[in-house]
Predict the 3D structure of the following.
Amino acid sequence: MPVTFALVATVVVYLRGWYRLRNLLPDVASTGRLACFMSGMFALWIAVGSPLAAFDDDLLSIHMVQHILLMAVAPPLILLGAPALPLLHGLPQSFVRAVLGPLLRWQPVQWLGHVLTHPVFCWLAAAVTLIAWHSPPAFEFALRSEFWHEVEHASFFTTSILFWWPVVQPWPSMARWPRWSIPVYLFTGMMANDALSAFLAFCDRVLYPSYASPSRLFVITPLDDQALAGALMWVFSSFIYVVPAVAITLQLLSPRLHDPSSESPTTA
C-alpha cells in the first residue's frame, strides 16, 4: 500500500505539471510523452505494487519478471516521458522556489548530478548492481529480509534509470557522448545481462536454496523454473536492448533530407 500510494502521488504531480505545461511547451508536454510516463509508472507498479509481487517468493521466474520490469521496461519509458519539468511544475511552487530550486542550483548537487549521469558511471552502476544482487549469497539475503528485498528492487530501478539516461537523454539534459557511441554502450551493457541469463538457463543445479523446493501453486520443477527465469531475462531484456540500438543506428545512417547546412544560401 505505501508503494502504491507513492506511485499514485508521483503520477498526480506529473499530471498536474503536464497540464500546466501543455500550452506553454507542447513539445515537452506532448501526449506521447504523457503516455510513455504513465506506461512506465504502470510497469513499475506491476513490479512492486501489484499481486505479482505476492508470488515472487514462490517462483524464480516470477521474481525475474519483476526484475525485467524494474530494469528494462519502466526506466526507459519513464525517461521518455521527460519527467523533470512536469514534476517540477506539478509540485507546489513555493516549495520549488524556497527548497528545491536552491538545492538543485547548489554546486555540490550539480557536481554529483554531473558524475552520476556520466555514461561510464551509468554503465558500471547498472552492471555491478545486476551481477552483485544476483549472486546467490546476496539474492538469498534479500529474500530473507523484506527491508533488503525492497533495497534490492530500489537499487535495480535507480541504477537502471542511470543506465538508460544516456540512451534516452531526457529533455532538457545534454548528451555527454556522441550519439554513435550509444549502440556500443547498449551492446556492452547487454553482454552482462546475457552472461547472467545464460548461466541461469543452462546451469545444471538450483542456484538459490529458497527456490529449491517445488512450488505449491505451480506445476514446474525448481530447475525448470530457474531455466525459465534465465530464458525470460535473456530474450526480453536482449530485445529491449537491441531495439533502441537498431533505431539509433538507422537514424545515424539515414540521409538528412532537410539538413539546413547542405543548402546554399539564396540571394534576393
The chain has one domain: 2-91+104-253. The longest helix spans residues 222-253.
